[in-house]
Amino acid sequence: MAYSGMLPPGMTGFIVVQDTSGASGAVALQVSAEAAPPTSAAETAGAVAGSASAPAGDASPSGAGAATPGGGEAGAAGSPRRSARDLGLMANEPIYFSVGGGGGRNARFQFSLKYRPFGPGDDTVGGEHWWQDVYLAYTQTSVWDLHSDSKPFYDSSYRPSISYARHDAGSRILGGRFGYAGGFEHESNGQDGDESRSINILFLRPELRWGDLEDKRWQVTFAPRLYYYLDDGENDDIDTYRGYGDYYLSVEWADNLKIATTTRVGSGGHASILVDVSWPFARINDLIPIGWAHGYLHFQFFTGWGETLLDYNRRSDTQFRLGFMLVR
Questions:
Q1: Phi, psi (5° rounding) for residue 287?
Q2: 282-98-148 Cα angle (round to 5)
Q3: Rounded Cα–Cα distance for residues 51 and 66 (Å)
Q4: Which of 80-84, 258-262, 271-275 has the weakest average pLDDT?
Q5: Phi then psi for 116, rounded to 5 degrees?
Q6: DSSP string of 78-98, one letter each residue
Q7: Which of the chain's ends, N or C, has fewer CB atoms near its CB within 10 Å?
Q8: Phi then psi for 255, rounded to 5 degrees?
Q9: Is residue 238 within 8 Å of residue 261, measured between CB atoms?
Q10: Are residues 293 and 322 in contact, defined by beta-carbon separation less than 8 angstroms?
Q11: pTM of the predicted model, to two decimals?
Q12: According to the 3-state scheme, what is the secondary structure of 101-132?
């Protein structure tokens, strides 16, 4: 049998809850002036009963799974479990793993995070001081050869960076909300000898966003990343194939389809395009109840020159891949 009811605001002292039918006994409650917002008598009675029936070792609210003032759960030692945002960690570029073919079966995967040492744990919120908008980031992109007998990694690109970024600069250009990022990035493939590749760049990435995913339920983003080569390393002709910018364009519908393209045009007329299409598994669940609730179905298409840093000066086989995207 359950009872419910609301306590008047400001009530303190002892309260006796009794079933007048005599089907159950009375419960005595003590309400202090420090009680949180009005609480139902049934919930309070349940808490009292639970404390009385629990073993002595579990009576403390710092036991495993106990709620904490921060809203999370406590660990075995009573410390709250902190989210990645609480630690200043955020997604940077898309995170995915997809498999396909084109010159042999292969997989391409990417892992990318950024860290905000001083500012809020939300990169859409600007800091009060300039140093609160400084980010450290790391992105790794790898192509895995699944066609060869030994299944080696064909090439990987490692990109640590430091940047200053403002998601919303408070102004509009051509009707779009304006944001920007700029900084330094190192990129290398970790090889030595003839297969070693590395570059150091300064980059500037203005961003324009039209629409709004919350209000208008759609958004178009144009964000060219323009760069200047500080050091070409072992590949002093890379600008001929990669050019001086990555031109990003995307259209996204809230909780639905997103199509993103990244285009490069080298100064020697060599070009490439990467297309990433993602669709939430939650949407697929509406059509086919597969039970997969998180992440996205990912389709990837690439054609042109230099899919990997190792092959920056070679035309790559056209690729079609299908897989899983965690962050888009």
A1: -95, -45
A2: 155
A3: 13
A4: 80-84
A5: -110, 100
A6: SPBPPPTGGGTEEE-S-EEEE
A7: N
A8: 55, 35
A9: no
A10: no
A11: 0.74
A12: ECCCCEEEEEEEEEECCCCCCCCCCCCCCHHH
Instruction: Determine phi and psi for 192, rounding to 5 degrees.
Output: -130, 175
Using the CB atoms, write b or e for 88-114: b if 16+ within 10 Å.
Answer: bebebbbbbbbbbebeeebbbbbbbbb
pLDDT tens, 43-65? 444 443 444 444 444 444 344 44
Retrieve residue 149's tokens: 């007998």
Structure tokens at 304: 């042109």
Helix/strand/coil (H/E/C) assignment for every residue in 253-284: ECCCCEEEEEEEECCCCCEEEEEEEEEEHHHH
**What is the rounded CA–CA span in Å between residue 92 and residue 86?**
16
Domains of the chain and any CATH numbers: 95-119+129-327 (2.40.230.10)
- Structure tokens that stand for 24 in this block: 């159950």
Q: Which residue has the tokens 């059509």?
A: 287
- Specify whether the CB–CB gap between 160 and 188 falls below 8 A: no
Which are the contacts of 232, defined by CB distance < 8 A and separation ≥ 6?
Answer: 199, 238, 239
DSSP 8-state assignment for residue 56: G
Q: What digits encode the pLDDT tens for the residues 18-45? A: 666 655 566 666 666 554 444 444 444 4
DSSP run (H or E) holding 288: none
The tokens describing 175, both together, are: 């009707």
b (16+ CB within 10 A) / e for 1-33: eeeeeebeeeeeeeeebeeeeeeeeebebebee
- The burial of 261, by beta-carbon neighbours within 10 Å (0-12 exposed, 13-18 middle, 19 or more buried), is given as middle
Alpha-helix runs per DSSP H in the chain: 41-53, 238-242, 281-287
The span from the first CA to the last CA of the chain, in angstroms, equals 49
Report the pLDDT value the prediction gives residue 84, as an integer from 0 to 100.
Answer: 76
